């Protein structure tokens, strides 16, 4: 089968490259830039439809997105184009071809309501900012198209590649003597390698057949960004930095982030029967890889 990965230069796209290296399926890795990467701009509806038709694509994994949460507040049109309108282009093209669209969404579709139990798939979306709003619109475009699809909502993604919270905190806890990190926003960090492994397994074993719908996938466990930072410093051996918990209003930003966006993964576990690693175990593995590369 021919498989198209969009946004393949990003964290999840790169992790999928590694996970699928030995597959007997044919993968096409695309993005708007990058060496060893085919060019495909998902905001170009004709190009998207042409690529899917010409290459006989059976599955699309959409890893392309506008992921800068703060910048999206001042760049709403671009965020909407990439996270919603272009997702509709992919979905309509797959509806025409009869293939399957695997689309990635986020825990930030939640957060506007005060709750403290893990979010279920069917729970109403209550996004608090442009990024979350446009990601929710993207999900709706997929469902409205009538294409065969799986939507995976994930959270707090990090990896060895690109810019992410783990890389930022590795640098800050090394450079700074003191750091304040919010403790009133809880969620679950997710190693992109684990999510890529899960998606690859589902594609490789055709587990998507008869299992369309929306699923939550993050690593196991719950923490705040403060706890996450403490664990990052611990695994990196950065003992000098004094990491203190703070409230969100002490770390001002353009957008209010969810205070509780833990994802309930029961549906994923029971449907696919795949193991999900604990967040601390995956974090330790990722930091060891980053340190090895230096
Ligand atoms: N990062 C996170 O913490 C989380 C991410 N997610 C979701 O997971 C998915 C993957 O995220 P992640 O890997 O971190 O994202 P990244 O931002 O790392 O990667 C996205 C990729 O898409 C590319 N891209 C931008 N515009 C286009 C376009 N017009 N056509 C094709 N590709 C384009 C980007 O290029 P460039 O860099 O040049 O813009 C980048 O290479 C996204 O759907 C995201 O919303 C969900 C929860 C958490
Ligand atoms: C750097 C830093 C951040 N923070 C806070 C700010 C924020 O509330 C929290 C996380 O910071 P970030 O800006 O890295 O996280 P953010 O970009 O909001 O991360 C989100 O990205 C999108 C793409 C998603 O889909 C989400 O699941 C989530 O991963 O940590 C501190 O408290 N102290 C610090 O020194």
TrEMBL record:
Residues 1-290 form the RmlD-like substrate binding domain. NCBIfam families: rmlD. The keyword Oxidoreductase applies. InterPro entries: dTDP_dehydrorham_reduct, NAD(P)-bd_dom_sf, RmlD-like-bd. GO terms for biological process: dTDP-rhamnose biosynthetic process. Pathway: Carbohydrate biosynthesis; dTDP-L-rhamnose biosynthesis. This is dTDP-4-dehydrorhamnose reductase. GO terms for cellular component: cytosol.
């Amino acid at each position: 089968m021919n498989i198209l990965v969009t946004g393949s230069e990003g964290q999840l796209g790169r992790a999928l490259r590694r996970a699928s290296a030995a597959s007997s399926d044919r993968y096409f890795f695309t993005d708007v830039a990058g060496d060893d990467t085919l060019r495909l701009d998902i905001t170009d509806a004709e190009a998207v439809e042409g690529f899917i038709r010409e290459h006989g694509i059976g599955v699309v994994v959409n890893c392309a997105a506008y992921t800068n949460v703060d910048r999206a507040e001042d760049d709403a049109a671009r965020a909407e184009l990439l996270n919603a309108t272009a997702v509709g282009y992919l979905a309509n093209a797959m509806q025409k071809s009869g293939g399957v669209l695997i689309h990635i969404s986020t825990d930030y579709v939640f957060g506007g309501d005060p709750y403290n139990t893990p979010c279920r798939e069917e729970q109403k979306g209550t996004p608090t900012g442009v990024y979350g709003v446009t990601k929710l619109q993207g999900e709706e475009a997929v469902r409205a198209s009538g294409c065969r699809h799986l939507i995976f909502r994930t959270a707090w993604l990090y990896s060895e590649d690109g810019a992410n919270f783990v890389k930022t905190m590795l640098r800050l806890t090394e450079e700074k003597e003191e750091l304040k990190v919010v403790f009133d926003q809880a969620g679950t960090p997710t190693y992109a390698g684990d999510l890529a492994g899960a998606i690859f397994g589902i594609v490789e074993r055709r587990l998507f057949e008869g299992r369309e719908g929306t699923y939550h996938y993050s690593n196991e466990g719950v923490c705040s960004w403060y706890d996450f930072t403490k664990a990052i410093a611990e695994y990196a051996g950065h003992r000098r930095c004094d990491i203190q918990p703070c409230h969100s209003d002490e770390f001002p930003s353009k957008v209010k982030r969810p205070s509780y966006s833990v994802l309930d993964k029961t549906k994923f576990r029971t449907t696919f029967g795949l193991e999900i690693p604990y967040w601390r175990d995956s974090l330790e593995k990722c930091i060891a890889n980053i340190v090895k590369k230096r």
